[in-house]
Amino acid sequence: MHHHILREVAKVGVGLVMADIICSVWLSSAGLLPITVLGIAWSVSAVWPGIVFDLALILLLAHYGWNMKLPITSPTEGGLLKLIGIVFLIVALLHLVRIAFGWNFILNEVNVPIWLSWLGVFIPGYLSYSSFHFALKK
After folding, report:
1. Residue 41 pairs with which residues in a beta bridge?
2. Which of 65, 100, 107, 135 is an S-S bond match for 81, by CB 3.0 to 4.6 Å?
């Protein structure tokens, strides 16, 4: 795996998450909410928690894309990557348990469909793997 590819993907991810924030604000201000997209009903009350999550994701992706120098030489960045890897691993495992037991997940009046948890297994799982890979690579 080439680290420059992951960095470029992170930069594209920043742009996509920014577009998500812009769309959320636009839909909310235009009075077009509630709306159902791909089986997920989005209401006005879901906009601000989504924006806060998106901003945290932008900070993480921007750090990957522009600030991180690979291979890791700083113990602080290595520790940060390990912490991020653990968080992504927990998220992936929780989605996997949700799929296995068929649990409902309601996030601020939005019932998250099961198919979305498959993305919640593979994407955070890959990000966890990448974080550990770069943190432990000498």
Report:
1. 36
2. 135
Nearest to 46 by CA among 23, 65, 62, 79: 23
Q: What is the mean pLDDT of residues 82-99?
A: 91
Question: What pLDDT does residue 2 have?
Answer: 63
DSSP 3-state percent helix, strand, coil across the chain (nearest 5): 75, 10, 20
For the cut 90, the answer to whether the pLDDT of residue 77 exceeds it is no
How far apart, in Å, do the first and last CA atoms of the chain sit? 14
Q: What is the pLDDT confidence band of residue 127, given thresholds at 50, 70 and 90?
A: confident
- Detail the DSSP E strand segments found in 75-125: 105-107, 110-112
Name the token pair of 106. Answer: 């309601």
Sorted by sequence, the CB contacts under 8 Å of residue 19 that are 6+ apart come out as: none
